[in-house]
Each structure stands twice: as structure tokens, then as C-alpha cells.
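Bug #77: duplicate submission created two jobs. Keeping one. Sequence:
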Amino acid sequence: MELSFSSVVVILLLVMDPVGNVPLFVSLLREVDRDRRTRVIVRECAIAFGVLLAFIFAGNFLLTLLGLSDSSLNIAGGVILFLIALRMIFRGREPIFGEHLAGEPFIVPLAIPSIAGPAAIATVILLMSRAPQRQAEWIVALTIAILATLALLLSADRLSRWIGEHGLLAFERLMGLILTAIAVEMLLRGIEAFVRQLL
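Kept job's structure:
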């Protein structure tokens, strides 16, 4: 089944998880000057975009270099997405990516792995392996997803105040359920392709 452009944008948004990252960004940037905060968020989103863009261009080369098949990538991507989805549904209150770093965060943990994490990287590589002729389309989809992520994260303080911690948690769990279904679909597709190779 071929993925539509809109479904790719939604998948990228889900794996980047901007809503789930709101509490992390609010927590890490609390000590950063308000005027500086916007520039930090823009910078981190730009870095994440650059990393994911690099994997769009180098994805097929990496697959060839490592000798990976589409079925193995589908299964691996499905497993990673499933684990990310479980973390979204059963998120604890303990810091996961070292949120209590001193000073202004740079690249880690905001750009990587909060936005451009393993699931997002696996997703863009998988997109390129399945439809390399649609590279321009994937770049546009990634751009839209990053801009939407940027808009949400720039509103992190307001969202945190308006929706509250419980509201954000409930919304993230809903997104986690959707991502679980996508992960299972990827796993089934990978297993089906693998079985077909054996026959």
C-alpha cells in the first residue's frame, strides 16, 4: 500500500511528537531569557530538520552500504515506532533524555533525540527506500512537519498553561495509540515481505 502525502506528514508529526515535547522544552528553557528562547527553539528545529534531511539524501546509500532489505527496515522501524508509542502512552515523570542539564541546551536533548530521534530517522530512511522517486515529496512533507513542530514548540509556554499537564498527557496518549496502530502495520508489512522472500 502506497502512503499518501498527507499520511506521511501525519506520521512524521507523530514520531517527532511536538506535543509530548512541550513539557521538556518548557522545563529546559525555563532559565533561558524569554527573548533568547525563541531563537533556541528555531535553532534546535533547524538542526533536527538538517539531520533528517541528511538521512533523506543518504538513506538509500546507507541501506546499500549496510546490506539492509526493505523488510528488515520495515520490521526495525515498526519496533522502534512501537516502543516510542508505548513511551507516549505510559510516559513516566522521570527525566528520560537528561532534562536537568545546566545552561542553555544545544542539540542534545532538544534537536536530537527529542525531535530527530530514532523513530523519525528510521521513518525518513524507510520512505526513501520504498519510494526514492518521491524524494522531493518527502522533503516537502518533512518541511511541513518541522514547521508545524516549530509552531507548536514556540507556543509551548501558552499550551502548557492553557491545556495543563493532564491535558497534554491525555493528548499525547491519544497520539501514542494512533502511532501504535501505524507501528503494527509496519511490522505486519515487513513480516509479509519477509515471508514472501522465503516462498
